[in-house]
Amino acid sequence: AKRDREINMRAQMMEARQNMKDLYDLWSVLDVHQQRSLTRDKFREQMRSLEVKKEFSKFKLDVTDIDAFFNLMDAEQTGEVDVEEFIVGCMRVRGMSNEVDTGITIQETKLLAQRMHKTLKTIQKQSGDFQSELQHLSGRLVIVEA
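Structure for EF-hand domain-containing protein, as requested:
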């Protein structure tokens, strides 16, 4: 039993190494200008290629929502993905559609919370400005009545 586990673990490690090599090769296809990073726009552009789509499908990676997939790879939220983020991101989401859906939901929830916080700050500022203006006008109204 122990020997079977070791053989199984060794096979999994070899498969993981091969997947990493294959993903590195895919990265080479994506990074045509060899800039060592890929922006969201460049990723979108590359995803139009039938060759690239075929390569992603080999890994059972569903990239129907390109922006959401990019966000999952862009762990540091820099707007760019380097080869390491690309490989780790692809390995993380490979064949795990439920986890991808969860990751997308979490990402979208975070972005929504950030937008709501920003909107609330704007409303609070406008409310303060409005109150100041009302106080100013009521002070002028008292002067006019006197």
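Residues 97-146 form one domain.
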